[in-house]
Amino acid sequence: MLETNSAADAVRTPVGVWTGRAHHGAQADPAFTISFAPDGTVALRTPASVGTGVWSAGEPGRFSYELTEIFTPAAGRSDRVRIQVEAHLDGGYRGTGTAETYTSDGVPVDTTASAEFTGDRLADGPAAWHDVISLGARIRGRTLYPGDEGYEEAGSGWLLTVRHRPAVVVVAADADDVAAAVRFAAEAGRPVAVQSTGHGKSVPSDGAVFIATGELRELSVDPGKSTARIGAGLRWGAVVAAAAEHGLAPLCGSSAQVGVMGYLTGGGLPLACRTYGFAADYVRSLDVVTADGLLRTVSPDQEPDLFWAVRGGKSNFGVVVAAEIELLPLRTVYGGELSYAGEDSRHAAKVFGAYLAWLKEQPDEMSSSVSLLRFPDLPQMPDDVRGRSLVQFRVVYTGDEEQGARLLEPLRALGPEKDTCRAMPYPEIDEIYPDPKNPVMAHMRGALLHELDDEAVKELVSFIDPSAPGGPFPGLEIRHLGGALDRSPRRSHAAGTQGAAFSVWTRMPAPPERADAVREISDGVLERLRKWDTGAVLPGFLFDHDSTPERVRRAYTEADYRRLAELKAEYDPNRLFRINHTILPVGDGDLTRS
User: Fold this and answer.
1) 3-class DSSP state of 53
2) In degrees rounded to 5, what are phi and psi of residue 557?
3) Cα separations (Å) of 238 from 179, 217, 249, 336, 425?
4) Rounded to the nearest 5 degrees, what angle is found at the Cα of 155, between the Cα atoms of 149 and 160?
């Protein structure tokens, strides 16, 4: 390793980043960027190629380097160029050298050329992409490094409270790109971060190989088989629209903006969850790139253990690039929102209590939730909610319209201010929940609850009491579980409610200057609900604050977590996939349930 410990080294050695050109007489090649590191390695970038090699210092102010330039797949060239240069430092650097062309298997081609090389220093240290530049030679899509146009956008997500600074972003063009990026990360000893549409990446990916699968947008519907094949880059809105053309529907969640793969690998809690169970029940097969860089098709008949683990185990076992799912003959549902004034805590408790009593009479075809909202009195808030507290019920009924209307009569008798419930075409189902469509800066937490009693009602409505200190709490949602969720799934998977009656989650704006305070408030909400907390959480509702191993393991039963840990040791023993809610492989931490 070269020693560069003094200020004079910046002048005596080429350590740093340079912009340069090769001159052939009066003709000059396009500009390139070259990086020299203190360890004697060199890395090259051009718009169509990358290169790696070594450099060494000679007499003071002189050095030499050699590298192999490899063209990226987009360049359409398979040959390689071996470059050797003798240079000296003269403000910039000047040198002479040769460029010799070889075939991809190392056979020399008679195109050796002499050239003059010049360079101007851009920075004193090696480039941020120095150690990962060779990945670009393997990728047909885009390879983006810190400072590149599009790098920030490609690596950003829906949750703006988490900033990602990966070593490199691979915007994959196909499954082969995904496999190449995974193999490179394994060789380089770097973790892999995966993001399909940007909705769910909530763990920082600093230093990782960040694989963005958003451009894998394959979509085909087979109406005869009632199935759809879906690429990893699709959101539910596109799938719902394509299926509806054939009178079919996928089991999507509350927002058409959510990506398919992150939803399915978290288990997928559909709006009609009590009728049909988890969306993972309806997955027929998955195409997944595992830590060894192999593309595998997994199903109940092909590697069934891995098929089980990926559905519910999130991104712990590989990069899902495509899925085949079943579609349902569901053209319409009966659903919508019932909204009630919540400023009077006694009235809010009466309405909430009536809802809980109503639930006990509902068939599995009725899925519902209650939201408790307390809005700040700020000018930017809409006039109809500014400074108000609300209790809102949302329902999705999969039976006929007349029966749905009859079932809602007890809730309508409570006098809602707003009632949007109606028979609606399935593609309009995402209008039931006003989920944000743009990225947010928020802090979220989730938990699973036992049955709620009068004391729980009193505690919950206190969060929206205008006279109570510590507010506002703009988002507290409780979804009713049970029904099909409590029955054995059609195709076994790792997601489950662990017998809980309700799922609760909170969402609070968390600007950087208030992030710590908001975290404490949000944690305090769950602490106040501890009496009804089962200690578990849905894997699809693990958020940024839930990334510790202790919290992740609560998303699974003890038996399922052990099975997941064993499969993690089999498929990803080195934890290549750890920029996520990590499941520790067997042998890497105590498996005793805390």
Assistant:
1) strand
2) -70, 160
3) 26, 10, 11, 21, 15
4) 115
Q: Would you say 51 and 44 are in contact if contact means Cβ atoms under 8 Å apart?
A: yes
Task: Identify the three-state secondary structure at position 39.
Answer: coil
Residue ranges, the chain, pLDDT below 50 = 1-10, 590-594
Question: How far is Cα 460 from Cα 476, in angstroms, rounded to an integer?
Answer: 9
Torsion over CA of 201, 204, 210 and 212, rounded to 10 degrees? Answer: 20
Is residue 163 within 8 Å of 193, Cβ to Cβ?
Answer: no
Pairing of strands 209-212, 113-123: unpaired
Q: CA-CA distance, 215 to 51, in Å (whole number)?
A: 27
Locus of tokens 């590191």: 37
3-state secondary structure of 465: coil
Tell me: cis bond preceding 472? Omega within 30 of 0 counts. Answer: yes
* Widest Cα–Cα separation across the chain: 92
**Exposed/middle/buried for residue 61 (C-beta within 10 Å: 0-12, 13-18, 19+):** middle
Residue 294 CA to its chain's centroid (Å): 21
The residue type at 184: F
User: What's residue 265's pLDDT?
Assistant: 96
Q: Which residue has the tokens 């319409």?
A: 332
374, 385 Cβ separation under 8 angstroms: no
At CA 398, angle to CA 396 and CA 404, rounded to 5?
A: 75
Closest CA to 232 of 324, 142, 321: 321
| Whole-number Å distance between alpha carbons of 250 and 220 | 13
Count Cα neighbours of 5 within 13 Å in the Cβ-side half-sphere: 2
Residue 540: count of CB within 10 angstroms of its CB: 25
Helix (H, G, I), strand (E, B) or coil at 27: strand
Distance separating alpha carbons of residues 106 and 83, to the nearest angstrom: 14
Host H or E run for residue 526: helix 515-528
Q: Is 591 exposed, middle or buried (0-12, 13-18, 19+ CB in 10 A)?
A: middle
CB atoms within 10 A of CB 81: 20
Evaluate whether 127 touches 17 at the Cβ level (below 8 Å). yes
- CA-wise closest residue to 445 among 368, 518, 512, 352: 518
d(CA 328, CA 330): 5
Side chain identity at 24, as an amino acid letter? H
Task: Please tell me the predicted confidence (pLDDT) of residue 192.
Answer: 96
* AA letter at 124: D
pLDDT of residue 162: 76
Rounded-to-integer distance, Cα 301 and Cα 312, Å: 18
The tokens for 73 are: 């797949």
